[in-house]
């Protein structure tokens, strides 16, 4: 049986609802700042070790306080399942506030659960708009913004989006983006950064970091082939391309054929991008992590292509 002391303790906690790798990275600075008052509720939207637990470890966070296990479900069922489970959690232990970040299914479920229980809702990274109604994320972020009590907009432009939609100005604040703190925290020491660059054979300001994960790019074979082709062209011009590849994108590349990242796909002599595993050490580590040679005929976990060295580029 819960005591008054238990109820008082839960009323002083802040619930961070998250479920994906970017949410872990971007909310980590806030979770650390709140310390013992933070209670992390993980929906399980991303659930394997490399996409979830590894990022908690890399960000210096303890394991989630609650794991809900909604991974692998279609969007509507995932949101509905997470909403129902979060409602049970908030019924048992009502927090002082709920914090969500971005535009994921997990964030929307957290926003709806907070709204249903009349718990104040804080939206980190509010006001972003693509104005593309084909994107599920666009619907998620708009709904979250209009449910939120405190909206943390990264930029003045994001704030303008919120005001234009009729959200009261006193609920909206330009705060910057927590990804900056997350990136700074993930940066290796200067000597380590220099060694990583040397190991990769690239120089500061003389390489390209590319990532592909949006559905309209990653799940459209023609778009994906076109994008990778342009990355290979950049490499041929003397700009080495470091490409942290999401497992789903790696599978999509494999489906295009073994030559898509190299000369066989794009013409004789045209090098391809360097593909690296999206390791759990922040954006810089994803870009500059270790590589290992590819086996022929398959998309490997990590590949270094024959990108020309920037020292010999025209």
Automatic annotation (TrEMBL):
* Pfam families the UniProt entry points to: Epimerase_2
Alphabetized, the UniProt keywords read: Isomerase
Species name for this entry? Catenulispora yoronensis
What protein name does the entry list? UDP-N-acetylglucosamine 2-epimerase domain-containing protein
Stored Gene3D superfamilies: Glycogen Phosphorylase B
Residues covered by the UDP-N-acetylglucosamine 2-epimerase domain: 36-255
Family indicated by similarity: Belongs to the UDP-N-acetylglucosamine 2-epimerase family.
